[in-house]
Amino acid sequence: MNNMKKGFTLVELMVTVGLFIIIITIAVGGFTNAVRTQRQVSSLISAQSNVSLVLEQMARQIRTGYLFCNTIGNTQTGSGALGTTPAGSVPDCGCTLSYPPAPSGSWTCNALDFYDAESNHILYSTSTTGALMESVNANPAQAVTGNEVSVRYLQFQLYGQVEGDHWTPRVTISIGIAPSSTDPAVASDVINLQTTVSARTIDCVPGASPAQC
Fold first, then answer.
1. What mean pLDDT is reported for the chain?
2. What pLDDT is stored for residue 82 in this prediction?
3. How confident is the model at residue 61, as a pLDDT?
4. What single DSSP character describes residue 109?
5. Residue 4 within any structural domain of the chain
6. All residues at 6 or more sequence positions from 197 whose CB lies less than 8 Å from its CB, including other chains
7. pLDDT per residue over 14-39, tens digit each?
8. Do the domain assignments include residue 31?
9. Is residue 7 part of a domain?
10. pLDDT reading at 72 higher than 50
11. DSSP class of residue 190?
């Protein structure tokens, strides 16, 4: 009886090692992609949750607010910029008439200035660092979005907010956000959100007659 020693040839070993390397490479690549995707999803959910809460807060204030992007006692009827006022009065909202005719046309604004139900002077705008800012009664603006959110754009579409147009003000908020991250793949994911809020009362100067509103 022959005592034969069997083993693998060099070719078999090379093929086995090659297949093992290919399988490991595929597995590691899949795991890496799964981790990156999980990080992206987590960042997007966190950013969207934060901004959703901010939009809800803004909607509550707008619903009971009045005098949107307008100076008290000033009826805007021209085709120029709405909210452009003298120093010391209501700040400029950076509005342009996007859908005539005035005064009941639609205005596109870069900021939103109004008075809430308690007559607090509210101003929403964006900062150069990508945060949504709120100023109350001309106090220094504070960020209302978290550090995990980067605001890419903010726009307000106003309709019926001009005194004397006899329309209930309607504000459409459009905002684009992205997670604050040094990872280009994560930071490039922009979420576009939009909501429309109607105020409960017609825009009117306090103490004015119904005919003036």
1. 77
2. 45
3. 94
4. E
5. no
6. 58, 59, 62, 63, 170, 171, 172, 173
7. 888 888 888 888 887 777 777 777 77
8. yes
9. no
10. no
11. P
**Under 8 Å between Cβ of 71 and 130:** no
Question: Look-up: residue for tokens 């700040």?
Answer: 91
Q: How many domains does the chain have?
A: 1
151-161 pLDDT, tens digit each:
999 999 888 87
What's the whole-number mean pLDDT along residues 50-70? 89
* Residue 137: strand, helix, or coil: coil
Helices (H), 76-211: 184-187
CB atoms under 10 Å from CB of 88, counted, come to 6
Which pLDDT value is given to residue 211?
59
With respect to residue 85, please indicate whether it lies within any of the assigned structural domains. yes
pTM (2 d.p.): 0.71
| Amino acid of residue 112 | L
For residue 181, the enclosing domain spans 15-206
The three-state DSSP-derived secondary structure of the chain is: CCCCCCCCCHHHHHHHHHHHHHHHHHHHHHHHHHHHHHHHHHHHHHHHHHHHHHHHHHHHHHHCCECCCCCCCCCCCCCCCCCCCCCCCCCCCCCEEEECCCCCCEEEECCEEEECCCCCEEEEEECCCCCEEEEECCCCCEECCCCCEEEEEEEEEEECCCCCCCCCCEEEEEEEEEECCCCHHHHCCCEEEEEEEECCCCCCCCCCCHHHC
Amino acid at 203: D
